[in-house]
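Second opinion, please. Pick holes in both lines of this record:
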Amino acid sequence: MKKLIRDVLRSSWFQHAVGSLTAAFLRLVWRTNRFAFDPPDVYDIVEPQMPAIFAFWHGQHFITPFVKTKESQRVKVLISRHRDGEYNAIAAERLGIGTIRGSGDHGSAFHRKGGVGAFKEMVRALADDYNVAVTADVPKRSRVVGLGIIMLARESGRPIMPFAMATSRYIQLDNWDRTTINLPFGRGAVVGIEEVHVPADADAEVMEQCRQKLEAILNQATERAYELVGRPEGAKHG
């Protein structure tokens, strides 16, 4: 029985079915929540600086594909090669987001399987005028920014745009990143506070300063997003 379940979970038809259903559900969430933007002119601020690196926290990612509001805004997102990543990749592609498959930052760099190739592909994507979206925190260490995204900004010369999205109705799981499943028919908020620029000649000290700044901004944006939808407790992750 275990083998049968494993084979079903790994089957292409099942992964495509789950990915497609997920994309359809997320469209429903986006269309049925009344979203506020903070600042109101956030797109006027961000668009002239594209292509950019869009950063958000693990577990707060389900409705992030909808930051893309125009066909001209080309975006690729980093998604792991793990089986669960297949569902996310299919859903992202159904929502018009390109994918880069590989491991993210597991400490100070991208040394795990697929990590180096993914890093190079992200640099190429930014050079080709694609925005790149990536979770900023290190896997299994929620709300702790890794140096990988700082290295990407230094290598590419592109700004990091930290942002948070929240809805008033959600389910929050009791796992390491407090994964939030956004629900339809409520209020939503998109918050972008301040971009982070990493100098091309940044040494270890400067990179650490940028890392800490990004972490602080992401926490502030997350708190602000949940305040705007009237659910300040949703920003807690401990």
Observations:
- The first strand starts at residue 34 and ends at 38.
- The beta strands are 34-38, 53-56, 75-79, 98-101, 131-135, 160-167, 170-172, 180-182, 187-192.
- The chain has a mean pLDDT of 90.
